[in-house]
Amino acid sequence: MDGQEAVASMDQGVTTGNGRNVLTLDEIANLASEGGQSAETLMNVVALIAKRFHTDVCSAYLLEPDRANLVLAATVGLRRECVGNLRMAVHEGLTGLVAEQVQAVSVSQVKSHPRFKYFRDSGEDAYQSFLGVPLIDRGILQGVLVVQTIEARVFSGEEIRALSEAATQVAPVVSEARTLDRFIAPLQERLWALARNLWWSWDHNSSSLFLDLDPTRWSELNHNPIALLSELPLSKLETRATEMMLHSRVNYAYRRMLEYLEDDRTWGTRHAGVLRPHPVAYFSAEFGLHESLPVYSGGLGVLAGDHIKSASDLDIPLVGIGLFYGQGYFRQRLDLNGWQREEYLETDVNQLPMEVAIGKDGRPVVVEIETRSGRILAKVWRVKVGRRDLLLLDSDVDGNAPEDRELTSRLYGGDLRIRIRQELLLGVGGLRALKALGITPGVLHLNEGHSGFAVLEAIRMRMEDEGIGFDAAVPRISREVVFTTHTPVPAGHDRFDAGLVEEHIGPLREALGLSQESLLGLGRENPSNSEELFCMTVLALRLSRRANAVSALHGEVSRAMWTGLFRGKSEDDVPIGHITNGVHVPSWLAPQMFRLYDRHLGTDWHRRSSEAKIWLGIENVDDGELWETHLNLKSQLIEFVRRRAVEQAKLRGEPREVLQRFERVLSPDALTIGFARRFATYKRANLLLTDIERLAAMVNDPKRPVQFVFAGKAHPLDEPGKRVLQQIADLMRDPKFRDKFVFVEDYDINVGRAFVQGVDVWLNNPRRPLEASGTSGQKVVLNGGLNLSILDGWWAEAYDGVNGFAIGTGKTHSNMSVHDARDGEDLLRALREQVIPLYYQRDRDGLPRGWIKRMKRTIRTLGWRFNADRMVMDYTSKCYLPAAGGVSSEFRPNS
Fold first, then answer.
1. pLDDT digits (tens, 9 = 90+) for 735-766
2. What is the H or E stretch that residue 322 is in?
3. DSSP 8-class letter at 573
4. Angle (nearest 5°) at CA 888 between 887 and 892
5. What is the pTM of this model?
6. Which of 36, 77, 195, 584 is the most exposed place for a label (fewest CB within 10 A)?
7. Phi/psi class of residue 529: alpha, beta or left (left: φ > 0; alpha: ψ in -120 to 50)?
8. Which of 141, 40, 22, 729 lies closest to 382 in space, CA to CA?
9. Cα-flanking dihedrals φ and ψ of residue 316, to 5°?
């Protein structure tokens, strides 16, 4: 059929091979007006399709809100009493196979197919052939349309096409049936709608709904609403909702989510409209959005997660691109010797808020990348993050070699060959996924160098689209590229040898018209040095017009590090600026503090949290109210730590007396100091142990006791980091420390949230200047905790002398041992002379007035500066809009 015939066919309706219409648009409209209700319309539609298609059965199955099950919604040929009652999982039967693969399935003899499953009550035992096609409305799978015949029938390609086009016409009716006629209960539907958009995770009212449905399972399932709802039959859900009076709360949360999604009176609408047709493509190797979606390891991923959440709140047109890691980062367990052990568990995708991404051709998106050693394929998942989408590429697909099916199974696992293949998939595959979805980005934001290959692919696309050469395409693409570097040490940047680069980039290099040496030169500080490895950060810096570090001090370090790349420029003139990181306020703020701010800062404070004046109201909060709120959060933290400590001890097989000790460990009256982050050696978790006897005297002072809670993971291959972790874990068995030190295993967002909301003091003592920014201490600020930190990263520009505590004066030393010894002494001195005395200085009401004064000052001076809304606004105004050509005026000084 030529193009004109195809257009005519779409105008007139859907036709079979003999030219007869299966269904016309006018007929659907007439059937809708006759039936009134969409359920009746659907029944009329399937009857007409069965007649026109000459089949014995035509059935429509709707996807339930959990998107893991199908329900029979209309049928001709099967038993009518099964409508609304016959359910099947998407992994069951041939109908489930259509939904699972999101493509047509045609079988002439169903009983010979390995996915055949007989549903006894349906009355389908007489039917031999099967043809099923997906029902897709506005790019989202809604259900499955099926025809069956008694005789064995081989459906032709034309017939499959015709039914697929009929499904396209019917899909809006199916979508309406799913939302209006409710083959499932409204309560269940709305809970599932909330669960499938991660907006719930930063809306306390919504998350509390899932907690109240079943508090025990909510905790055991790591706060995964999809897993929770999957376990609850409708009858139990209704009973629990009635007992807890949840119906009105569910309706309220659902209505608020719709209002949030539809609101166009946003900062982004006012300031970033130019990005709407061509959004920002935000690439990151990991995204830390919530503990129930384990595709992150630490700070880089959590920052990316906070970035996309704030982009949603502000309504900045942006789409995230990452990888789906089937086993995530590892689960951590400590053995009886305190040594870290790693476990990798397969994630059940049916328990995650993800959907198959459907391309503009109506098919599931599959990207393909050619390498010298074969092609790599990947499917694409779509995650809803408020108003924004996150796309995750997954290499576990048919057609890949076994090693490539495992390519995206683990985050930061494997050797350099796995690493470069992951980065190829992230950068090149990510950009191709956007194209398949009909998205043309106006800005490429590379969050670290892992995705640097995306720029090469963008250049190739521009060369092809505009018929220009590489040299002409480079400046046109570079002005659209924003690169954020996070690594303050040369050894932390990915580097690959020429053989690995050619194996994986060779086909793309040829498409760019570059020689091997020319391509390699793009990733070398000295392009002519054949001994130099190819560096992803160098590639990104060369091909981006705007590059930034993530704090003021990190900007200085980065400019010094990359002076050699910009020959002829002084260190101060190296074109790397900085935008200091911030954190997403609603994600990290305790509900109790949120309510306190509502009372005193105004109910819309969180929409204006990047404005300094909003936080002035904290000074009007009664000291007793603020302190009582903090003590409640501290008690929650202690209960959390006790519970986790007992669970960990049970798994290790510890004796009963140890379990009993952990049930009572920590005191709500003691100064509680928290430390949670990666156990890289430069972060110096063991700096406290510089003088072990002085530390013992400090924690065991009966009048002014101190206690510590620790958490964090060492990279599986980082033996020195594991030894530092073991040192901390061993303190739990030392009689001098065991009631004052607790290490909480398996650090994740959930553990981090509990820590930052409940500690009195947050300890951060990296070896300056190796902390690029750090954001955990910023989360503590929001909850009224005080920072005790080396003057590095964000704290170097945040500390004003009275809004927390500093360790040392920012001096370093060329001798690492001297540096560490001096910082260790400064840490113990700060604890002994400043932190502990101020905490225990109480008035006649038992309130630490001086401490509370600092709490208020840290909130007032830092809350507005170090939050992700301010950060994303800075990226938008200073990077995205200029890159997209969206600034109304700009002047450049004469050089």
1. 999 889 999 999 999 999 999 999 999 999 99
2. strand 318-323
3. G
4. 75
5. 0.86
6. 36
7. beta
8. 141
9. -90, 120
